[in-house]
Here is the input.
Amino acid sequence: MTPRALVVACNFPPDASVGTMRTLRLIRHLTASGWRVDVVTIAPEGFRPGTVVDPALLDKVPPAVSVIRATPLRPFERVSARLKRAKAPAPTSERSGASATKGAAGERQGSASRARRAISAALALPDREVSWLIPAVWRGWRHARRARPDVIYSSGPPFTGHLAGLALARLLSVPWVADFRDPWARAPWREDRFEFERRAWAIFERLVVERAQTVVFATETNQRDFARHYGAATAQFFVVSNGCDPADFEGMVPKVERHGGRFVLLHAGSLYGARNPAALLRALASAIEKGRLDRSRFRLRFIGRLGSLGADLPTIARQLNLAEVVEFASHMPRRESLQEMVDASALLVVQPVTTVSIPAKLYEYMAAGRPILALAEPGGETADLVERSGAGLAVLADDEAAIEDALVSILALSRDGFASVDRRAYDGDERAAELRAILTGAIEGRVAGVANGQDSPIAGARQ
Here is the structure.
């Protein structure tokens, strides 16, 4: 019989976030392999402000796929907005005891601010898409009564998708595969969050791990972390790395003349949180000052949104006298962004702090055939992939001296001839085939057999 999969994912076209691409490749592969696929996702009118949208991605969704769109309720966001607008009491104007009063007012304001942040955090558990959970389960269940799936696949983050997958799997009594593209409860970039948030994430994560028939990870480091934490549950853990669609680059010819013979180091994608390339700007300024790089022949180009970085990159560039060297461009359609990669001289990855994750953008960089400079933790997944695949260089994100040397080296690597990376390192079609094999194994109940070394349809899935 033709198998049927119910895919649950917050990120799906026209959402152009990087989390969309892995799911999109999977459903395209399943459909091409004869599967019937239904997708439960967020309705565009429910996208959060700032969501990057690319309508052209809708053309990549196979016509045979049924897309069930549920609109988030978002009542908590309205409450959070009111909390943020709430103002602390104005300080008294009395002269007597003014300093003490001002100090007390500051303490009250600090306490009120922390209370508002705590309430906002509580209303956003497990994440900011929590208000999509009930509509997703309701719409998914109604559809599944008419088109019963053989297996459920959920993708996260956002991890609300996993809780929706859990609910639907329980309601429908069908096997469920949960795909973790990133860490959750023990993510190193969440260590500064409230203790109650981390405890809640741990509870939700355990529910997913214990109830899912199979758990998939995008990196070996994340799989090992889960294996250490959950012990006996490791029989159902598999690693399927990320990738990209090589066909997206077909017909693209480098247009190097558009840069007037300049060397262009390109970063394509949003910058936020710890992904702050300020050290790179300082290293670039130092290299130019020392004459190691030619100001008139070098460009550092950023394409995408500049989120909360704790620093104003354009201002830093001006202060370092790099206004004519560093370029900033807003988000552009995916096809144009890919062409920018092909046209660039070299490509930049900014992945500090964590050793667990690999930016999905890195696989597109590999397919673009340009050398890569990765600002990443030594020994981490990102640095290891870049160096092991021969894709380029990896240096510590805040080591300005090492970055300066790497800028000079990447320029030489680009001009002296760069051998493209082996397609198998980034081919998302192969990864989608691995996921399909895991879904097939979940349906046939043979996933545990793989862990015990028995025969299984899961060829290529790496434990």
Summary: Confidence is low (pLDDT under 50) at residues 87-96, 447-463. The chain has 15 helices and 13 strands. The chain has three domains: 4-72+129-243+429-451, 87-123, 246-425.
